[in-house]
Amino acid sequence: MKKLNILILALILSKTVLAGDPFKGSTAVVKSGFIYQLQDVSFPGCHASTITETADGLIAAWFGGTEERAPDVCIYASSNINGTWNKPVMVADGIQDGKRYPCWNPVLFTKDNGEIVLYYKVGPDPQSWWGLYKTSKDNGKTWSEATKIPDNLLGPIKNKPIRLSNGKILYPTSFETPKEWNIYLETSDQNLKDWRKIAIDNNQLNSIQPTILTYKNGTLQLLCRSKNKNINESWSKDGGQTWSVLTPTQLPNNNSGIDAVTLADGRQILIFNPIVKGRNELAVAVSDDGIKWNAIALLENDPNSNAEFSYPAVIQSKDGLIHFTYTWNRKLIKHVVIDSSKLKTKPILNGTWPEE
């Protein structure tokens, strides 16, 4: 009897521990690994990755150097052909008029004609940086000289643009000052000309780095990083010409970057840190309407609060797979693939990540 009671107690304790475990959703993950190893590169630090699909496969980029803000920080890229990432190469630096500045936040985008655009920022800090872009006609093997984005415009600030139904490119962007953060949008044509601004009422919510979702009825949604512990949102019912006042969602935000993508079947995918403090957890959620979100997978969950998994990027490739890249402890860029046909979900209620 004593042994039986001990066994029952052990089972109860085991179930109690398991009940407190976060939902992992690992069945949806079909591939996970690093784009490169530290011994293969010359830069000790990295951050802010981006990814797009090419006619050859995939290409990812990020900034790397001694540390963020250091003058030696450049943009590096790696292509994935037949499932293997090649050795990273430097594709842009911050040398301007004989002076060297750090590079920031690359964004890759594939135009309608297949040309790849690499947008990035150069400057001493986010308050005074400026936007540039390079283009590649051979899927990232070679790049054009840098072109400066027109004054008072920046291009996409962290997350990828989208193509509007009228052929225009819509860029999610933002600016920072010592007193406030604000999101807005920019547009250009496919030739990267005719740049224009679209304003948004930020409602004094101090938000940056928006990402764009689309809906079959033509509605657009912005989700963005903020200082108010929530992901904030804005909606457009007229194809991106005007936007609703920015408001908080129930989803948490730890003042770190997010990204999202609309799948071919209309579902919305969001990758974010599901906590309000720290960057030691990184998660993926799905939604049909952009309002109610369900947990898909917890990609990272390190008990060390100093661990960092941040600044994610996400796309869906033509084969239906969902590709994520993100900063792994400021040392490496990680690539994770989820099969969109294998999603098992649990509701996210009141902004809290569900238990197993």
Produce a short descriptive summary.
The protein is mainly beta and 356 residues long.
Beta fraction:
over 45%
SSE order in H/E notation? Answer: HEEEEEEEEEEEEEEEEEEEEEEEEEEEE
**Helix and strand composition category:** mainly beta
Q: What would CATH call the architecture?
A: 6 Propeller
Round the mean pLDDT to the nearest integer and report it. Answer: 94
The rounded distance between the terminal residues' Cα atoms is 32 Å
Share of helical residues: under 10%
List segments where confidence is low: pLDDT < 50 over at least 5 consecutive residues.
1-18
How many DSSP E strands?
28
* CATH class category: Mainly Beta
With helices defined by DSSP (H or I, 4 residues minimum), what is the helix count?
A: 1
**Structural domain tally:** 1
The rough form would be described as globular
Query: What kind of sheet is the major sheet?
Result: 5 strands, antiparallel
Radius of gyration: 21 Å
Explain the overall architecture:
The protein is mostly beta strands. Helices cover 5% and strands 46% of the residues. Strands 2, 3, 4, 5 and 6 form a five-stranded antiparallel sheet that branches. Strands 21-22-23-24-28 form a five-stranded antiparallel sheet, with no helix packed on it. Strands 1-27-26-25 form a four-stranded antiparallel sheet, with no helix packed on it. Strand 25 and strand 26 form a beta hairpin. Mean pLDDT is 94; it is low at 1-18.
Keywords:
5-stranded antiparallel β-sheet; disordered N terminus; about 350 residues; globular; single chain; Neuraminidase
